[in-house]
Design a protein that fits this description.
There is one protein chain. Helix content is about 60%, strand content about 0%. With about 100 residues, the chain is mostly helical. It has one domain (about 15-90). α1 runs antiparallel to α2 (about 40-65). The longest helix is centred in the middle third of the chain and has 27 residues, at about 40-65. The N and C termini lie far apart (about 50 Å).
């Protein structure tokens, strides 16, 4: 039996890969804090605490890209990377759920 085939990531610079990884970490924490999805205050507090360090790491990744002369965010390539890394599901936790029918 063959293992499942995974969609390969597009070619990214190391800095772009770091940017995507840190962005998803921030997204995950914001999703855990989102009051529209319930949960407990302790979990939201822990996510908010982690968010600070993840946001700093995201800033550092973007700083590194800028310092290396990577002055463009290549949206098509990076969007493909986000999709491969389950970014669509992860980003849904940040938004409001649909309003119930009236």
């Amino acid at each position: 039996m063959q293992p499942p085939e995974f969609t390969p990531l597009p070619a990214l610079t190391r800095a772009e890969g770091e940017f995507i990884d840190r962005y998803l970490q921030v997204l995950d924490q914001v999703g855990r804090i989102n009051p529209a999805h319930g949960g407990d205050t302790y979990g939201a507090l822990r996510a908010a605490q982690a968010l600070v360090s993840y946001a700093a790491a995201l800033r550092n990744a973007l700083t590194l890209m800028h310092e290396r002369g990577e002055d463009r965010i290549h949206e098509v390539t990076l969007t493909r990377a986000l999709r491969v890394l389950d970014g669509e599901r992860r980003s849904r936790r940040v938004t409001l759920p649909p309003a119930p029918p009236s």
